[in-house]
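We close this part of the discussion by returning to an individual protein. The encoding preserves chain order, so positions in sequence and tokens coincide. The sequence in question and its structure tokens are set out directly beneath this paragraph:

===
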Amino acid sequence: MITKAIIPVAGWGTRMLPITKSIEKCMLPIGNRPLIDYVVQDCLAAGVCELIFVVGEQSSQLESYYRSNILLNDYLRSKGKDDKLALVAPIDAKLHFVTQPSYGKYGSAVPVALAADYLEDGESAVVLMGDDFMYNADGSSEVARLLAATPDGQCSLLAQEVPGDDISRYGAIVIDEAGNFVEIVEKPKPEEAPSHFANIGKYVLTKQVIQSCADVEISPRGEYELTDAVSNYARAGGIVKVVPAVGMHLDGGNVEGWLHANNVVCGRSGSCLCEV
């Protein structure tokens, strides 16, 4: 059973400046909860209870959010607000915080490689980005569905079907007849897209693939890409199952996406639909 997740959250959040100068991107609010908590709650609902956060050198807010606040607890009790205590209680999970250097290699493969030592040989982990999440109005867990669809010891990735011309904004997945990943075509013209399934950065990966993230070559974009590690594994004969997403992919890493995520989760009236 897979019980560990690697969640990179070390980015500066430049698309959300200036607010991310003082608030970590993963801590920006979606409704009355930080963005990262939607990722975390999806993991917990799937039985993934050991979370490995890869954080920036100046990160403190994330760890503070998941730590018990004795003064706040005392205040709530003194004011007869005991019903609020459950909202601020620590989660039932083992947390690790791995620091990613600010001026080293850059790209999605880098933080994943830094977390490799937290896995035992032969172990796999869920890998999720910390600035987007899957939303299911019924409260179901997308991570649970991804795990259920992944054969033991194999890899998988979650794919979101996107309509028409929208595929040109994403990496389109080439899928073979068995439903397995072949490669990704970055931002294709709609008429040249190999499929309308977009890669949304959510995986189950073996330790072997996670370790290989340290060895990927720099991409034409000047980054070390997690997708290159996955593609290398597939080219070498490894199986990566493509699992269609059921929920809605919400991206809180840019202003437009963040506003949309708040509208979806909280509704246009502003009443939060997703309190825990």
Observations:
- Residues 255-266 form the longest helix (12 residues).
